[in-house]
Specification:
single chain; seven-stranded parallel sheet; elongated
Length: about 240
Amino acid sequence: MPSKLPRLFVKSPLLPSAEIALDRDQTHYLANVLRIKPDSYVLVFNGSDGEWCARAAAVGKKSMTLVAEHQTRPQEEGPDLHYLFAPIKRARVDYMAQKATEMGASVLRPVITRRTIAERVKVERLEANAVEAAEQCGILRVPEVRAPQRLDDVLNAWDPERRLVFADEMAATASPLEALASDTSRPHAVLIGPEGGFDPEERDLLLERDFVLPISLGPRVMRADTAAVACLTLVNAVCGDWR
């Protein structure tokens, strides 16, 4: 059996001898791009049953069936970390969805702010980017992708038990590690604003909430996608599964 096997996210339950019918895109990728033959092996995961080694039982040009044979890794949950972001240009949103998935985000939430330019968000595209990132980087879950909501609606419905880490460009430059270390027992979420930052009234709305923790990302102004990676790294290092 090859040491490096193709890896796919599937929606079927995974257990010994379970049959897994692949969709058309997955079939095209395995049969026509990778030239998978009958009795070849593929790694599959569904976000709840761990990772499994599956055998290609029936291979056609438009359909393929796999049969799960044995579990290669048990399910790992990862950190309880939500990632909220104001949508930006499509290619950079794709990048953010991929990197947030790789860094262990459990939920992706587009948030519409007053300065948000790209208000049309395709949830299906975010899901596809999250799946691709999970397949490639070896993690065992794909984050839940939620429909876009306006910032005030998000804050009004917020569970105060979850701390919302807000990357605040106007915060005094200080150690974000020290700020995050003040409470590592609660679940966390990261909020990254739009290009140009939050409207002053939105910033005030955030700062008046007890569950919001503003942090500085240093003296340089970062692009939104760079700030996302930086902030998720800090939270994982102090409060997540990098400890």
